[in-house]
Amino acid sequence: MKCPFCDELEDKVVDSRMAKEGEVIRRRRECLGCKRRYTTYERVEEILPVVVKKDGRRESFDRTKILAGLKKACEKRPISTATIEVVTDRIEKRIQEMGETEIESRIVGEELMKELHQLDQVAYVRFASVYREFKDIDQFMDELRTLAQQRRDR
């Protein structure tokens, strides 16, 4: 493992423990070059589907894109990083459980929308405005009306 401070390749593991209900191993490492400590996380490499984009391009599933989208939508909202990580984990797990070798990007986006709808309505509207590519204020207002109606119906 390359040291994030000095790029040394040699280190020693100081401590290992399970995290995220045994799905991840957290390791504290000490660089043999600069003696600084850092943390790494190891998880089983899972076979995830290829994502088919709107224009037909295909790319590997990338968990960091989901995480980045959630962080952007939740920016300046009272939502912890830990909560965003848990939501990302749930989305990734649902996609993996579908068992598909290819999945449309639309499905990933809809999973994000479902989670944000439950989590925070402001974050949901932020994400929806970009994801659904509202063409004008009327489309945006329609989405807000639908959200307000759903809230009243609860």
What can be said about this structure in brief?
By secondary structure, the chain is of the alpha+beta class. The protein contains 5 helices and 6 strands; from the N terminus they run E-E-E-E-E-H-H-E-H-H-H. It starts with 10 loop residues before the first strand and ends with a helix.
- What is the ordering of alpha helices and beta strands? EEEEEHHEHHH
**What is the residue-mean pLDDT, rounded to a whole number?**
91
Classification by helices and strands: alpha+beta
Alpha-carbon distance between the two ends? 51 Å
Percent in strands? 15-25%
Tell me, what's the shape?
elongated
Structure notes:
It is a single chain. Strand 4 (50-52) and strand 5 (58-60) form a beta hairpin. The longest helix is centred in the middle third of the chain and has 17 residues, at 81-97. Helix 3 (105-119) packs antiparallel against helix 4 (121-131). The strands form two sheets. The chain has a three-stranded antiparallel β-sheet, with no helix packed on it. A three-stranded mixed β-sheet has the order 5-4-6. By secondary structure, the protein is α+β, with helices and mostly antiparallel strands. It is 46% helix and 21% strand. It has two domains: 11-43; 50-153.
